[in-house]
Specification:
The mean pLDDT is 95. Helix 8 links the parallel strand 8 and strand 9. Strands 1-12-10-11 form a four-stranded parallel sheet, with helices on both faces. It is flat and about 65 Å long. By secondary structure, the protein is α/β, with parallel strands linked by helices.
């Protein structure tokens, strides 16, 4: 019988924006025993469940509109201006845990919009952060997920380009380059979070060191999808799981070295649970 050699990537786990939001939530839960949160505090079902057991109540925008005289947490993804207006009308206290990187981006987009720039945002339709960004432009900016979709629009000769903070830097610059090759003038604002984009390089190094990689992430995480692909490209023996129950002993052989890593929305405690499960295997 042989146990597996298992290592967790020290660079994986929550980014500072998520750490900040969860810390704020936990402090208030300790004080008052419950807290309303607008949308999932993080795109990780296991972490959301942990906080719900402590009294976090997830609500949507329609439920918030019915709420009065309560505290509501705004998560790291940020919110459009309408959310703040509803809070004023309903006497809601907003606990604003919007990530500073996202807030800075919202302000830049608002400034561009006020200057009447033609704004295009590289991001995921309907993503919480993107909804907040669109709100800065009265929903007039164009959101696109790839070059093919962008080219379906009638493009102005001058394009102001922004990006959701968790997108791939490489993809952003490829889009900029291709637009310029097609003769457009591009004012490109690289607003990708460096804590996220640096993970790309670090993960490549990490994934190359092991026989097998277990990538742990919530299925709703955009960042998780991007980073999983980075791992898979580097090490084809990469498996995606969202919870420990999805592990299968038949994926492993005696003597395997296994690396565990995750998204910026993957809690360290979840990766540690996966490590303990793997260490319990006798192959």
């Amino acid at each position: 019988m042989q146990s597996l050699s298992v290592t967790i990537d020290s660079n994986s786990g929550f980014c500072f924006g998520v750490v900040y939001a969860i810390q704020m939530a936990e402090d208030i839960l300790d004080e008052q025993g419950y807290l309303f949160c607008l949308g999932d505090i993080v795109h990780n079902d296991e972490e959301v469940e942990r906080l719900q057991k402590r009294g976090l109540r997830i609500i949507d925008h329609a439920q918030m509109a019915e709420l009065h005289n309560e505290s509501v947490l705004i998560r790291a993804h940020g919110e459009p201006p309408e959310t703040y207006q509803i809070a004023l009308q309903n006497n809601l206290t907003l606990v604003d845990a919007s990530c500073p990187v996202v807030l800075k981006l919202q302000n830049r987009i608002k400034t561009s919009y006020d200057k009447k720039d033609k704004i295009f945002i590289y991001g995921k339709h309907g993503h919480a952060e993107v909804v907040g960004l669109l709100g800065q432009t009265s929903n007039e900016a164009v959101v696109f997920e790839n070059m093919a979709e962008l080219l379906q629009h009638e493009l102005p000769s001058n394009i102001t380009l922004y990006s959701q903070t968790t997108k791939s830097t490489d993809s952003f610059y490829k889009i900029k380059g291709e637009l310029e090759e097609r003769g457009y003038e591009v004012n490109a604002n690289d607003t990708i979070c460096r804590q996220v984009s640096n993970r790309d390089k670090d993960l490549r190094k990490f994934a190359a060191k092991f026989n097998k990689i277990i990538f742990v992430s919530g299925t709703k995480s955009s960042n998780g999808k991007v980073l999983y692909q980075v791992c898979k490209d580097t090490n084809p023996n990469t498996r995606f799981i969202s919870k420990v129950e999805e592990l299968k002993p038949e994926w492993f052989q005696p003597g395997d070295t296994v690396g565990i890593c995750g998204a910026t929305s993957t809690p360290m405690w979840l990766m540690e649970t996966v490590r303990e499960a793997l260490k319990g295997y006798n192959l």
